[in-house]
Structures are given as structure tokens and as C-alpha cells.
Request: fold
Amino acid sequence: MTRRIFVATLVVTALVASGEMLAQENRPLVVASTTQVADFARQVVGDRMEVRSVLAPGADPHLYEVKPSDAELVRQAAICLENGMHLEGGDWMRKLAVAAGKEDELVTCTVGIKPIVLKAEGNQHVDDPHSWFTPLNAAVYVNNITQAVGKYDPQHKDEYQARARLYLEQLRALHLWIREQLSAIPPEQRILVTSHDAFNYYCQAYGFEARAPVGWSTGAEIGGGLTPARRKTVVDSIRDSGVQAIFVETSVNPKLIREIAKEAGVAIGGTLYSDSMGGPGTAGETYVGMMRENTLHIAGALKRK
Reply:
């Protein structure tokens, strides 16, 4: 009798597990271009939808080359999410969506953000696409995603909005915490030198001057690339400013910035998460985590010793 009960329990457990797996498999698929956008989406949809990122942690959206598997992933998507403002080099996410007939399902998460306009090569101007680098802008991403998933699945709209409200409160708290952590850095040390121009929004929000040897893109697009004149200007400005440290980025080869640190006679203050978040199990595997760790590295390296 006991053995029968045990076997019956196993059968029920297996049926429940298989039912849960089937439910998971049948969830609508949300495909995001970047890890940050994917994290924002997960905060809103919970377990109602499956969220996948085209970019892997540590990958560079400016240089990314799409694969056939990316096209198949987008083809299966109920909703596609892009950062926009040409962060995805050559607008690869938009092209994937159009090729898959998903243009109407494509959501540009930066709609509504006031861009920082950068001067690029040839006297041209571009909108800086790295707008998630302030939690106040991240809130715009979240609101755009919440609106899109609520429209797709109105039955659970209230649930998505409730999750979004909680996460928006966390973003507001994160913004205040960042300001507090950076308050110990003296004005003359508020110069943030990184591999490429990814931190302008962060610098604008928290009273820093951004400097980078490479423009807004790490690719060969407008604004990308390093000239000898620009390199000399950055090295000289670091020396003249008396800044204590400069930073490498997780999604950019650190060789260049290490060479510049050596030439300028300054330390490497740490590695910052930039165009992608960290991998599973790292401190930067979420947006809040990456912003927290970046801020602690910056505050620790630049505050008055």
C-alpha cells in the first residue's frame, strides 16, 4: 500500500512538473536587443512571459554581428525591444524585426528620453544612445515596456503595472543612493575617463565631466575610432586635471585605456559595466547591480584620499 502511494505521488509530481514545463514553453516570447533592456522587461513581466536577450553579457552592441539563430529568435517573438538611437550598430535589431515581419511588434525603449547630442566626425551630430546610465532615464524604458506588454496582454495589464510601480520606486531609491555615494568626490576629481563615450548621461546627472579617447561608438561608424590627435588630447587633459584614476569597461578591450593610463601616469580605478551587464552570478547581472557596482568603483577611486 505504501509503495502504491509512493508511486502515485511520483506520477502526480511528474504530471505537475510536465504541466509547468508546458506552461513555461507556451509563454509569449519577448526578445530584447541588449541585456539592460532584457532586465527591464523581466522586472515588468515576471513569469508571464519569457524574456531573451540577443546580446550576451559583456558583448558590444556597436560591433555585434547577427547570426541566423538571432533571426529565428526574433521570428518567434511576440514583442521585440530595441534600445534605439543607433546603439545597435547598423540598426541590427530593427533590421531583424523588419526581416521577420515584426516591425509592428518592435518597441523602441528610448522614446520620450531627451537625448544628449554629441558632435561626431565631419562636424555631424548624433544622439548619444547610452541613455540608460541614469535611473531616471531607465524609468522611461520601463514605462515604454509596460505599455507594450499591457497592450499585448490586457488581461494582466494591472499586474504588469504593479510590478513596474515597485521597480520604479527602486530606481528612484537607486538615483538618490548614487548621489549620496558620489557626494564625497571633490569637484576637481569629478572627471570620468572611460574607453568610449558611454557615460555622458551618468556624468550629466551626477556632476561629472566625461572624457574618452574613442567616440560614442566602438565601431567604425560616425563618432567611432581613435585619432592620434584625440589620444594626445585625452592624455594631456588627464595629466592637466590631476585626476587620480581612469576606468576600463567590461564590453570594450581594455588595452587602449591601460596604455593611456600608463602614458598619463594615473591608476586604473576599476572595470565598469558599460554597454552590457554582467553574466549570471556576477554583481552586475541586473541593472541595479551594475549601477551599484559602477558607482562604488567610481566613488572609491576618485574620492579624496
About this structure: Confidence is low (pLDDT under 50) at residues 6-23, 216-224. The chain is about 45% helix and 10% strand. The CA atoms of residues 136 and 172 lie 7 Å apart. The two ends are 74 Å apart (CA to CA).
